[in-house]
Amino acid sequence: VDLCTNPDLVATDEEVNWGTAIWFWTTSTGSTGTTCKEYVEAGSFGGTVKTINGGLECPAAASHSGSVVGRLNDYCIAANVLSVDNLLSLGECSGLQDTFDACKLAGSCPACNGENPPPPSPPPPSPGPGGNHNYCGLSWADANSQCGESCYGGTNEECSSGLCYADATSC
């Protein structure tokens, strides 16, 4: 698979998507010299954050504080769904434990306080012609450049090519 000439495969081919995620998880060390896999085996969620986004989130830059709080809440959602009794350590990422404690106290991370989130709402229907930004194509770049067949509902089934891309440039 040549991702340099066809990077859309990461977004459109589930096998490639999972393969690249596992490759990153097991090989990328960022500035830490340690992979996410190794950090999890050592019991450190903070280490995974440091490996992936350490320069921006350990400690969190002001521009990323919302992302950190959202990530912590998502982490707690996953832990709740999987019935995890004890969360992994946050200590490898400077400031992450403080952010976790603050968002629990403020209620910004409701899942970390044991609250189950409501199921996600379906996206609103796309507007009709003139306001729709969902187009069919062989890739996002193709759909974005030709403004051809529309897929108003945002589903692949609406496209003869089988692929619907959202957020394409308005025609």
TrEMBL record:
* GO MF annotation list: chitinase activity
Q: What is the lineage of its organism?
A: Eukaryota, Sar, Stramenopiles, Ochrophyta, Bacillariophyta
Which keywords does this Swiss-Prot/TrEMBL entry list?
Disulfide bond, Plant defense
Q: Looking at the Swiss-Prot or TrEMBL record, what is one Pfam family this protein matches? A: Glyco_hydro_19
Record keyword Calcium present: no
This protein's species is Skeletonema marinoi
Task: Tell me the ranges covered by the Glycoside hydrolase family 19 catalytic domain, including all copies.
Answer: 2-87
Q: Name one GO biological process term.
A: cell wall macromolecule catabolic process
Highest taxon of the lineage: Eukaryota
User: What protein name does the entry list?
Assistant: Glycoside hydrolase family 19 catalytic domain-containing protein
Which SUPFAM superfamilies does the record cross-reference, listed alphabetically?
Lysozyme-like
InterPro entries from the UniProt entry:
Glyco_hydro_19_cat, Lysozyme-like_dom_sf
